[in-house]
Amino acid sequence: MAVFNVVTEGEGVLREKAVPVRKITPSIHKLLDNMRDTMYAYKGVGLAAPQIGVSKRVIVVDVGEGLLELVNPEIIESQGEERGTEGCLSVPGVVGDVIRAARVTVTGWNRHGETVTVRADGFFARALQHEIDHLDGVLFIDKALNVRRA
């Protein structure tokens, strides 16, 4: 597939609320493939479609446990709180401490249009929340308790 340029802070698409996907089509398959390839090429652990300039509610995540693709992901349950350091491909060169839920349950569609439910904790939960925030136009620096050079 293709590796796209990751858009960075200041690009309007990163501040938009992404549009829900109505139907899984070949173009959504291609988008998922391109997002996967881009995430791995940039050595990221997650990527949201707005980060490659596409305002659709689609994310990919791989924190070392295998690739997860979610279309129209939604957090349906969260528990606890954890503080952790985050960075972002769209905000290069800085990191910050962000408080997020320690455990989340997320639903969405897989690439076949089937509803899937994912339960995550720790770093996996943090990555899911970070990417879902992108779909609402929220960057980690908006929630960070502090921001510093990486």
Q: How do the strands and helices of this protein lay out in sequence?
A:
Layout: H1 26-41, E1 46-48, E2 58-61, E3 68-79, E4 82-88, E5 91-100, E6 103-109, E7 115-121, H2 122-135, H3 140-143, E8 146-149
Antiparallel strand pairs: 1-2, 2-3, 3-6, 4-5, 5-8, 6-7
Q: What percentage of residues falls in helices of 4 or more residues?
A: 10-25%
Cα shape: globular
Number of strands: 8
Rg of Cα set: 14 Å
**Numbering strands along the chain, what is their spatial order in the largest sheet?**
1-2-3-6-7
| Portion in beta strands | 35-45%
Succession of helices and strands: HEEEEEEEHHE
Distance between the termini: 31 Å
**Overall pLDDT confidence:** 98
Annotation field: number of helices = 3
The major sheet is characterized as: 5 strands, antiparallel
Spans where pLDDT lies below 50 across 5 or more residues = none
